[in-house]
Amino acid sequence: QEAAKYEKKVMVLDFVTPTPLGNSWGLGGTCVNVGCIPKKLMHQAALLGQALQDSRKFGWQFTEEVKHNWMTMAESVQNYIGSLNWGYRVALREKNVTYENAYGEFVGPHTIKATNKRGVEKLYTAERFLIATGERPRYLGIPGDKEYCISSDDLFSLPYCPGKTLVVGASYVALECAGFLAGLGLDVTVMVRSILLRGFDQDIANKIGEYMEEHGINFIRQFVPIKVEQVEKGTPGRLRVIAKSTKGNQIIEGEYNTVLLAIGRDACTRKIGLDKVGVKINEKTGKIPVNDEEQTNVPYIYAVGDILQDKLELTPLAIQAGRLLVQRLYAGATSKCDYVNVPTTVFTPLEYGACGYSEEAAVEKFGEKNIEVYHSHFWPLEWTVPSRDNNKCYAKIICNIQDNERVIGFHVLGPNAGEVTQGFAAAMKCGLTKEQLDSTVGIHPVCAEV
Amino acid sequence: GKNEYDLLIIGGGSGGLACAKEAAKFGRKVAVLDYVEPSPQGTKWGLGGTCVNVGCIPKKLMHQAALLGSAIKDAQHYGWNIAQPVHHTWSVMAQAVQNYVKSLNWGHRVQLQDKKVKYFNMKGSFSDPHTIRGLTKAGKETIVTAENIVIATGGRPKYPVHIAGALEYGITSDDLFWLKESPGKTPLVYYPFILHLCEIIVYISLTGSSPDVSLECAGFLTGIGLETTVMMRSIPLRGFDQQMASLVTEHMESYGTKFLKRCFPTKVEKSESNRLQVTWKNTDLRTEVTDSFDTVMWAVGRAPDTETLNLETVGVKTNSETGKIIVDASEATSVPNIYAVGDITEGRPELTPTAIAAGKLLAQRLFGQSSELMDYDNVPTTVFTPLEYGCVGLSEEAAVQCYGSDNIEVYHAYYKPLEFTVAERDAAQCYMKMVCLRERDQRILGLHFIGPNAGEVIQGFALGIKCGATYPQLMKTIGIHPTCAEEITKLHITKGSGLDATVTGC
């Protein structure tokens, strides 16, 4: 969309290879269809379930029995996504960007072959190319995984309630999904191979896990599934999962209605002909290394988004990188995307907002003696009346003693963590120090004032 | 003789307690006098001051109760099956809130004890610059002397005493949070004729320096199902950015609160059915109307609580118009060794966090060899109306007045919180704007945000503004998706351009 502003002739090829179970979706990518948007809406549905319970303590009265209807929610969510797909189609049209619902792959220098759903092939040439194919969920590679398990690609449009669910994985996708499924009243178990939220601050990751466990989610730690069998067909059916311990030979079995795999995502770079034009990729991960101007090793080919090596997999980052790239190419701008201090939020039942270094990373980079960690538990005012946990919410900042006690890491665990973290991220961009933090007056009574 | 205490604080509210606890840290002998004169309706409360007892805390909890009412409606769109009818019981909420407040009163008593601060439940007045006369409820007198004295008695709601019946029949925020029974009866909607059965009228005057309290109260009363009317003589939220103020009231109107604008009451009487009859004049239409309500609440501003302090005896100067105590940048009054913090001081925002910060810094300067003064600039605040409004820095009007409209740029956007989509809620008033200087670095002068969780959104940005944040710096900050706050980092349409400022798409 940005390039079209500069009156360039732009084409977008978008194609969704159906999931093993046959699921597909419209224009907009992961975030819109099977990521941030449906995730946050279902997380909201779960939060509202909690709100219903709280409301009784605040004087609201209604029947004791409150049940959740998956279909009502899924339909509303899908309708909204449909409106976004439509919105993008219209936006591209209005900006004169040519859109083709076809699978693109390089066949030679400056040339792409586009194959549509019906197998019709067309060739296109362009001066420059941008690869932004993103990723898709990884499968375990065990018997029964593709036949019987679902992934986040299937979950948000599932035409039936998933029922008793086993979530395999410890990524934020796994924990967020497990979180809202439990919040909607389902029996949820999470099977974790080793640690939770790899790459995130581990102190906080453990607090998140603890909170989820205390609120009814079962965790099976240090096991991996080795086989999934179908016990009974249905919507949902019944599945038997056999798992082996990572620490020995112990084998366990469990029965679930649904098995959701959330063990990671793989870049969609292996089958788009990159070898034909010489674009180097990391053979192990499939990710594309780029320079600080998002350029691959082939000068006229660029890449943005989840497929980039060593960059965070986030929507706003991809958007910003894409926009700035185009401004540099066609508007003479020089700004590069700033990948430092990119804030993020994990929408688990107890939300986690973060910006900057985790405590471990800070210790590694600067040395334990050179950093100071300030922390505090807090009790959101809104949780007092309904007697919700009074020492689970937590905030910590990590400061670099040698640089004026500059804030290099911000972490908050509590309601509306995303809203809280955004402003702090902006302040960190302005070089926030502990002193400035101390001298800023709080808004009362909100969680962020802590 | 030697003074008994190093520091004596009159007033156990946000400012007073913060100052006392900080001073105690330096090993000083500290005492706090706290006393609550019952309201005209007889309401009183424990240690902690306005915020804890009749301000921020109960207000936010009742606001939360109202928000939960909306959440119940939203939940049904998200698949939760809730059998109708859903209704709200005031006494359950009030008791829960009051119990929590009492736990805070208790908590403060314990904290003072732990920090070895002496607490007197007495009403204090000056005998001389180092001597305070304390009177208990029973009339017993105690004399206390101190090297330094801090006045932190705060304020109390004003009554429009020139309106007949105002004092006898009306309540204020002092009473609202402590009512055991609902201020309005539950509406019996099955009646074929209209009976004003659950009506509350809140009158806010033009001079309110905390006029937001009235809108906040009207907001949550509406939210829990009571028929609420707000009567005001002129503009709401005076002193706040007026564009934002009108969006806030617009939302309240669509939310169900009735507004009687450009009206003022002339008398309040009791009717035979034991309801209250209010007569008022409409300044535009030049008509006079009478109607019945269950409760009349006055929110015409707060007056500093200095009357019984005996300030004239010691020569502490007050502002002749407002009655507030005049202090300098170090919180010192016109009398050496006598200081003042919080709502009682002239020219300061009437906010808990500023009182706390000022109280702490004062103690640090008196006993801790610090010289740091309180910075009252860029203090963020939030109005907890049904659709919340958070802001920091200058309003658009103030910026124009200060720098001239040619020298400022206003970036703005209408946005829709993701959670409103499935809930089918109207986001017409969800709006934000950033007022910046036009010159080279484009420093941010003011940030205004209307939407859910406005306080949480604004807090971090207030920090940024304290660091001198500029527009380019904010634009370099990556957004967190999906949140409402991220829209602030994406502001790019200016008011000057005249372009449509509605955010579209993902």
From TrEMBL, chain A:
Binds 1 FAD per subunit. Gene3D superfamilies: 3.30.390.30, FAD/NAD(P)-binding domain. GO terms for biological process: cell redox homeostasis; cellular response to oxidative stress; glutathione metabolic process. GO terms for cellular component: cytosol; mitochondrion. Disulfide bonds join C31-C36. PROSITE patterns: PYRIDINE_REDOX_1 (PS00076). Transmembrane segments: none annotated. The keyword NAD applies. FAD binds at K40, G104, D306. GO terms for molecular function: flavin adenine dinucleotide binding; glutathione-disulfide reductase (NADPH) activity; NADPH peroxidase activity; thioredoxin-disulfide reductase (NADPH) activity. Its cofactor is FAD. Its EC number is 1.11.1.2, 1.8.1.9. Keywords: Disulfide bond, FAD, Flavoprotein, NAD, NADP, Nucleotide-binding, Oxidoreductase, Redox-active center, Selenocysteine. InterPro entries: FAD/NAD-bd_sf (IPR036188), FAD/NAD-binding_dom (IPR023753), FAD/NAD-linked_Rdtase_dimer_sf (IPR016156), GSHR/TRXR-like (IPR046952), Pyr_nuc-diS_OxRdtase (IPR001100), Pyr_nucl-diS_OxRdtase_dimer (IPR004099), Pyr_OxRdtase_I_AS (IPR012999), Thioredoxin/glutathione_Rdtase (IPR006338). Residues 342-449 form the Pyridine nucleotide-disulphide oxidoreductase dimerisation domain. It catalyses: H2O2 + NADPH + H(+) = NADP(+) + 2 H2O; [thioredoxin]-dithiol + NADP(+) = [thioredoxin]-disulfide + NADPH + H(+). The active site is at H444. NAD(+) binds at G169, A170, S171, Y172, V173, A174, L175, E176, G264. It is an enzyme of class 1 (oxidoreductase). It comes from the Eukaryota. Residues 2-322 form the FAD/NAD(P)-binding domain. PANTHER family: GLUTATHIONE REDUCTASE, THIOREDOXIN-DISULFIDE REDUCTASE. Belongs to the class-I pyridine nucleotide-disulfide oxidoreductase family. Reduces disulfideprotein thioredoxin (Trx) to its dithiol-containing form. Homodimeric flavoprotein involved in the regulation of cellular redox reactions, growth and differentiation. Contains a selenocysteine residue at the C-terminal active site that is essential for catalysis. Also has reductase activity on hydrogen peroxide (H2O2). This is Thioredoxin reductase 1, cytoplasmic. The gene is TXNRD1.
From TrEMBL, chain B:
Gene3D superfamilies: 3.30.390.30, FAD/NAD(P)-binding domain. Residues 379-490 form the Pyridine nucleotide-disulphide oxidoreductase dimerisation domain. The active site is at H481 (proton acceptor). The keyword NAD applies. Pfam families: Pyr_redox_2, Pyr_redox_dim. Its cofactor is FAD. The gene is Txnrd2. InterPro entries: FAD/NAD-bd_sf, FAD/NAD-binding_dom, FAD/NAD-linked_Rdtase_dimer_sf, GSHR/TRXR-like, Pyr_nuc-diS_OxRdtase, Pyr_nucl-diS_OxRdtase_dimer, Pyr_OxRdtase_I_AS, Thioredoxin/glutathione_Rdtase. It comes from the Eukaryota. Its EC number is 1.8.1.9. FAD binds at K60, G124, D343. This is thioredoxin-disulfide reductase (NADPH).
